[in-house]
Amino acid sequence: MKLITAIVKPYRLDEVKNALQELGVHGLTVSEASGYGRQRGHTEVYRGAEYQVDLVPKVRIEVVVEDAVAEDVIDAIVKAAHTGKIGDGKVWALPVDTVVRVRTGERGPDAL
Amino acid sequence: MTLAAASADTGDTAWLLAATALVLLMTPGLALFYGGMVRTKSVLNMLMMSFVSIALVTVVWLAAGYSLAFGEDAAGGLIGGLDHVGMSGLGPDSVQGTVPTVLFATFQLTFAIVTAALVSGAVADRAKFAAWLVFVPVWALLVYVPVAHWVWGPGGWILERLGALDFAGGLPVEIVSGASGLALCLVLGPRMGFKKDAMRPHNLPMVMLGAGLLWFGWFGFNAGSALGANGLAAAAFLNTLAAGCTGLLGWLFVEQKRDGHPTTLGAASGAVAGLVAITPSCGSVSLLGALVVGLAAGVVCSYAVSWKFKLNYDDSLDVVGVHLVGGVIGTLLIGVFAVESMTGGAEGLLYGGGLAQLGKQLLAVVVVAAYAFGVTYGIGRLIDATMGLRATEEQEQTGLDLTVHAETAYDHGVLGHGAPVSSSVVSPAQKVTPQA
Predict the structure, then answer these.
(1) Contact flag A51-B200 (C-beta cutoff 8 Å)
(2) Exposure check for chain B: N or C terminus, fewer CB within 10 A?
């Protein structure tokens, strides 16, 4: 199993969610995040004084999937989140040892 | 000022009652205006400095302030007497002009309140609250009250003897608050992180609401200063509206040219700058004059707020850039735009009056600014040497809301201290680049 984490622009969240549903991914976790990549943040102006704000708002999407579909899921997220403009985000995958469904105690792929 | 009519005029009294309530509303409005401009961690402290000024100034005003400002002159136009200490000798039947004396005293009290509250903008985020509680009454008696007597008191040297004009308080309110704010922030020193950290306004809608309430109250401030329901009040009212508008537009114009963005903070600041400048002049200038006074204030003040970065004094919320500079502009321009139909005598440069009036205005500005700066600096140093004027480093770092008042303004439920990660972690090593 793989944990796939995606940091994307907040307004692409719906697109990513729909793409994952089409692939048959049952569940996902979304959290608000902030940070910056190579483009850094943005500039704000207050009474003529400019402030460079580093951390820009993002959403973090996390899904755990079976190894076999991991590449397809990554591709789907990248396609849905892509705008071609700076700040589109990142997607990465990590191996997952164990998953347990709290309600039933099922383990492994059955728990997904 | 003490010429007694047989009895109060009901129309004048009704208008002044309403105007007094309007001016009192300016202080809570100012609290929101200032409160929105500080960071999340000290917004309640900022609100408190205004609200507590209402209570402190009212008490000292009733005790002795009114008598010293508006009692019979006791020393060559410099200070009033003690005849009305504790408001003694004044009852419901006492009349000042065409309004009850107690109403006149209350109307003037609201001016003293908002002036004290204005000073707090210069010391935001770092003044010790207990020191503010001591500063306000002492300052009101030693700085505001004498200047109010000079300008409006019976026999006051500025208006009655020198002949300089100030309709609604450019000298005692705007210039005094600006010069006092400058003095106090010099004693206090800059906020931790000044010119290094971003200190963004935490709530601009709150700033806009505060500016709106200030503007609303300002009609009572300026039109109420006619002390009657009459044509002069109406003219002052219209001038006030006109100057606020051109001030707003002037500031936005500068921002668009300089920064490429017309901002909400700029709109609020520009309107206030225009209103500040028309305060002394609303009862003496033509409508054209009012439009120019507002525009000049909007344009000049939008540059003046960056002086603090160049000259290295941390006037946190730009009391100097907006109130001192705006007040000077408005007071001086009386010497240019005064018209006989408004003043009943004096005329400005543009209307054939020559340089005489401008000279009188300039002298009044210099003396009042120097007096307010000097005495406030002295009070500030004295408080600093005895009880301390500045909050501790820990209080300032954590925020005065939590450390002084044991409250936080917002429950964001993230880090506990009332601030979400996204608003508290703003670029620790950021440049602050004033564009002007």
Answers:
(1) yes
(2) N
Which CATH fold would you assign to the domain B16-87+97-386? Answer: Ammonium transporter fold (1.10.3430)
The interface predicted TM-score of the complex, written ipTM, equals: 0.73
Beta-bridge partner residues of A33: A58
Q: What is the rounded CA–CA span in Å between residue B308 and residue B306?
A: 5
Across the interface, whether the CB atoms of A51 and B258 are under 8 A apart is answered no
Of the candidates B133, B131, B84, B127, the residue with the CA atom closest to the CA atom of residue B109: B84
Interface of A with B (CB under 8 A): 34, 41, 44-55, 57
Using the Cβ of B436 and the Cβ atoms of chain A, whether some distance falls under 8 Å is answered with yes
Q: Do B154 and B79 form a contact (C-beta atoms < 8 A)?
A: no
Range of the domain at A99: 2-111
SS3 content of chain B, % helix, strand, coil (to 5): 70, 5, 30
Q: What is the pLDDT along chain B (436 residues), one digit of tens a residue?
A: 445 456 899 999 999 999 999 999 999 999 999 999 999 999 999 999 999 999 999 999 999 999 999 999 999 999 999 999 999 999 999 999 999 999 999 999 999 999 999 999 999 999 999 999 999 999 999 999 999 999 999 999 999 999 999 999 999 999 999 999 999 999 999 999 898 887 889 999 999 999 999 999 999 999 999 999 999 999 999 999 999 999 999 999 999 999 999 999 999 999 999 999 999 999 999 999 999 999 999 999 999 999 999 999 999 999 999 999 999 999 999 999 999 999 998 999 999 888 999 999 999 999 999 999 999 999 999 999 999 999 999 999 989 999 999 999 987 644 434 444 444 444 434 455 554 4
Q: Rounded to a whole number, what is the distance in Å from the CA of B306 to chain A's nearest CA?
A: 7
Kindly determine whether residue B266 and residue A47, on different chains, have CB atoms separated by under 8 Å: yes
Angle at B345 between CA B341 and CA B350, to 5 degrees: 70
Q: Is A44 in Cβ contact with B318 (below 8 Å)?
A: no
Shortest Cα distance, chain A CAs vs residue B259, angstroms: 7
In chain A, residues with a C-beta closer than 8 Å to the C-beta of B433 are: 49-50
In chain B, domain spans: 16-87+97-386
The total number of structural domains in chain A stands at 1
CB contact under 8 A, B200 and A57: no
What's the CATH code of the domain at A99? 3.30.70.120
